[in-house]
Amino acid sequence: MEFIAPMVVAITLILTVGGVILFRPLVRRLGDLLEIISKQRRGELENPKLERVETLLENVSSRLALVEERVDFTDALLASRSSPGRLPDPQKESWRE
Question: Is it the case that residue 34 has pLDDT exceeding 60?
Fold first, then answer.
């Protein structure tokens, strides 16, 4: 009887350590997989193509704003042709009307 208790403890310890060693990588992969699935459901998964498209759209938007400003200035310049010798002042915002 006195040999059974240490033997049960040793077997339990060996099985526990063996189980941890065998199942730890599997559980880690399963956790990563569940995290990816939950991010996809919430829509938080980053897409590099989507980020690139957003960057390109921002660049196009800023360039379009510059073109609009130049067109407004040109329109004001052509409109002021009726009064020769006077150019619109780009510092004033009145030429953007």
Answer: yes
